[in-house]
Each structure stands twice: as structure tokens, then as C-alpha cells.
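We treat protein structure as text, and this decision shapes the records that our systems exchange. The remainder of this section carries one protein's record, kept here as part of the documentation:
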Amino acid sequence: MANYETTPAAPFGAITTYHAIQAVSNVFGALAAWNDARVTRNALGKLTDRELDDIGLCRGDIDQIGPNGHI
């Protein structure tokens, strides 16, 4: 007696729907990362030069902070 294991095919349009939802999710993720970087730059911009020096930054480093939070 032989055993066969079969995987049912995905319903019509399921893959396309998945990719569309993933694309929308990626857009929202990118927007959230951009906003986080913007908030960080604004907060760092309010610090004094002495406070920035304490955390190892200078005023010119603030503009280089990207969406991933790294200089």
C-alpha cells in the first residue's frame, strides 16, 4: 500500500492578494520608519552642543540620521 501526500493548490487570486497586502504593509512600514527618524532628528536638534557631545554626536550628524536610526 502506498501513501501519497498532496498539497492542495492555493485558491484563485490568493497569491495576488497576499502580494498586494504585503506591498501595503511595506509602505506603512517605510512611513513609520521615516516618521521615527524625523522625530529623532527633531529631538536631537533641541539638544545643546554639550549634550550632543555627551552622546557622541555633533550638530552635523543629525541630518545624516536615516529611517533605520543609524548615521
The longest helix spans residues 14-45. The chain is about 55% helix and 0% strand.
